[in-house]
Amino acid sequence: MIDSAVPAVPALVPGVAAVHDPRPPLSRVLTGIAPVLGDVAYDPDSGIMIAASSEAVTASAAIATSGSAPSPETARTVADALLSRHPEATRVTVQVRRIALG
């Protein structure tokens, strides 16, 4: 069940200043071999990547925080949003790539 109180995309979470592509750099360059790497879907509009393997379904996002809220709290809220929107995920990854000071 999708919780309508949870933002649909990481960019709408309070404290998120920017959303980055969560895919590793090499996979961004080699998108043509994605079928070899497994079932990976990246939505550039939401900034969310879903990767499925035989072991797990992983929902991932990469963010920069604004400093208006503590970064761990912001990352946890993004993780909650990922789980709410992708309940099939068995693993969630939120990378904080940049923290704004002040």
Note down, in words, how this protein is organized.
This protein has 102 residues and is of the alpha+beta class. The protein has a single domain, classed as Alpha-Beta Plaits. It contains three helices and five strands. Strands 1, 2, 3, 4 and 5 form a five-stranded mixed beta sheet that branches. A hairpin with a 4-residue loop joins strand 3 and strand 4. The radius of gyration is 14 Å and the shape is globular. The chain starts with 15 loop residues before the first strand and ends with a strand. The model has no long low-confidence stretch (mean pLDDT 82).
SSE blueprint and pairings:
Layout: E1 16-20, H1 25-29, H2 34-37, E2 39-43, E3 48-52, E4 57-65, H3 71-85, E5 91-99
